[in-house]
Amino acid sequence: MADPGRAPALTPELAQEIAGETSAVIGLNVLITDREGTVIGSGDTSRVGSVHEASLEVLRTLQARTHSAEEAGRLRGVRPGITLPIVHDGVPVGTVGLTGAPRRVRQFGLVVQRQTEILLQESVLLRYRLVREKAREDLLRDVAFFDPESADPGVIVARAAELGVDLLLRRAAVLVVTALQEADAPAGPPGTLPAASSPLRTAREIFGDPHDVVAEMRAGRIAVLCRVSAGEEWAHGVEQRCRDLVHALRRRHGVTAHAGFGEAAADVPALHVSYADADDAVRIGPGALPGGDVFPVRALRVQQLLASTRPQARARFTGARLGGLADEPPGSPLRTTVVAWHESGFNLVQAAKRLHIHRNTLLYRLDKISKLTGRNIREPVEATAVYLACLVDQLGGG
């Protein structure tokens, strides 16, 4: 038999809900007691808090008992009817009683008893799922806010193992930010499970590997510790799953989303860095790579470094390097020419091909950029400085 000390509690809230609804359906008063025989739920709420003496014998024997008017009169807090034990995993957790003539209520007794036990089981399972949901959120927060100066990674690994999660497997952190976050939507009520059609459920469907850990950090912000394979091909798989999730969120839930992911890691400190990189990627990516929706941090390392400097320093840098080019909006022909010129290795043929323009048009643009910035854009050092200034400006640093 299970340990009585570990039997699930039949809460007054659940007991009153069951008793009230059942009484309304069958037209008979139903009361529920705890394992001490105290009434914690009743169709007749005046009986809540009283002692139902007949329940003590039923709890001791685990046998149903009927009580005539004469028998009920000799017991404290008892009316004619039937009393049955409520049992969970072989352990008595309370009783359910029906008031009325024993011959009439007997036919309802077993049905109400079984229904009560089923509802109790569902309540236990729900509480278990809520606890696991909270534990997964806490695990992701342990990784996200890990501080090597004050936290022991071994403790976090052990805590994860209790959830069936091996944090020493190779993983990458993924962050998905939806339009709900961009609109500062309030978080849902704490301690609730994701709805069947929620973005979190969709994320768990896309990241469905048994080793993936998915949780909602706050409204509109979903984090994943994604199991990845060995070698360098893992990034393509993660990027594709991120893209699948972004598209599914748009199609199923009508929300726009951006995803960023960090590098692969196989211990808690490295996972924390991967999470921080994913956070940077999803924050910087939309401005640095307009039109994209999935951003690997490895594609944004330069922008990440630039974004780490103080805004005032970034503003001074762009002002000193861009000159008249600052009036050209990001994405304009001259701005895109600067980027293509630098990223093509200052090669006229490759840059023109990348921009889909004639070589003479490229030369014209380079001359114009040199005049606007006051710097010879054909010199690699000067071109690099202007290129970085364009990136900073695109991040909002100007």
Alpha carbon gap, first and last residue: 71 Å
SS strand fraction: 15-25%
The first-level CATH class of the largest domain is given as: Alpha Beta
Number of helices: 15
SSE sequence, one letter per element: HEEHEHEEHHEHHEEHEHEHHHHHH
Specify the structural class.
Answer: alpha+beta
Largest sheet: 5 strands, antiparallel
Shape: rod-shaped
Helix content: 40-55%
How many β-strands, per DSSP?
Answer: 10
Low-confidence stretches: 1-7, 180-187
Domain Putative sugar diacid recognition: 10-142
Family: Belongs to the CdaR family.
InterPro entries: CdaR-like_regulators, CdaR_GGDEF, Diacid_rec, Homeodomain-like_sf, PucR_C-HTH_dom, PucR_C-HTH_sf
Protein name: Sugar diacid utilization regulator
Provide the descriptors you would attach to this structure in a database record.
about 400 residues, Beta-Lactamase, Alpha-Beta Plaits, Arc Repressor Mutant, subunit A, 3 domains, 5-stranded antiparallel sheet, 5-stranded mixed sheet, disordered N terminus
What does this structure look like?
The chain is α+β, with helices and mostly antiparallel strands. The protein has three domains: 4-127, Beta-Lactamase (2-Layer Sandwich); 145-297, 2-Layer Sandwich (Alpha-Beta Plaits); 309-395, PucR C-terminal helix-turn-helix domain (Arc Repressor Mutant, subunit A), CATH 1.10.10. 51% of the residues lie in helices and 15% in strands. It has 15 helices and ten strands. It has helices at 12-26, 53-61, 69-73, 102-144, 153-162, 179-182, 199-206, 234-253, 268-288, 301-307, 311-322, 333-343, 348-355, 359-373, 380-395, and strands at 30-33, 39-42, 65-67, 81-88, 91-99, 171-178, 213-218, 221-227, 257-265, 294-296. Strands 2-1-5-4-3 form a five-stranded antiparallel sheet, with helices on both faces. Strands 7-8-6-9-10 form a five-stranded mixed sheet, sandwiched between helices. Helix 11 (311-322) crosses helix 15 and helix 13 (348-355) crosses helix 14. It is rod-shaped and about 110 Å long. The termini are far apart. Mean pLDDT is 88; it is low at 1-7 and 180-187.
